[in-house]
Amino acid sequence: xxxxxxxxxxxxxxxxxxxxxxxxxxxxxxxxxxxxxxxxxxxxxxxxxxxxxxxxxxxxxxxxxxxxxxxxxxxxxxxxxxxxxxxxxxxxxxxxxxxxxxxxxxxxxxxxxxxxxxxxxxxxxxxxxxxxxxxxxxxxxxxxxxxxxxxxxxxxxxxxxxxxxxxxxxxxxxxxxxxxxxxxxxxx
Length: 188
Fold this sequence. Notes:
By secondary structure, this protein is α/β, with parallel strands linked by helices. It has six helices and six strands. It has helices at 2-27, 35-40, 42-45, 111-123, 137-143, 151-169; strands at residues 32-33, 49-59, 66-70, 77-81, 97-110, 173-186.
């Protein structure tokens, strides 16, 4: 009788361990969203930790601390920023499916920001991304600006979009979103 109770207890412990380990594999993807889900309802996710899965379209070649994730090649793109705990994103993530966990952050672009950008361009102190003075194409895609446009073209386009938003929504700024990564994984 004592052996049966011991055997029964061992079976229960093993069953519990198997259940926990199996559910642990699935928990990473529980509540996973797409880039489109997040961007279409950004106010709902703002400041919250989100899980996204998508294709890494680009890892910044200058710093390695920015990665861009899209649902597919033609889909919306969101910037993911690394930190000192994670370090540089693995360049092998490009074109691979990735899982990212992090906090959604809103970046507001105002007229004052545009004036500062304009001053930097005029003084030649603007940080250049991409080649030939044009911004990084992936960053431009995420911002919704014309690919290959100059810094001044971007500033003018942003200014027009702010005016449009002011007229339609009463907001005198543009909202851009990025994810401050807590962790990421290449899924391939």
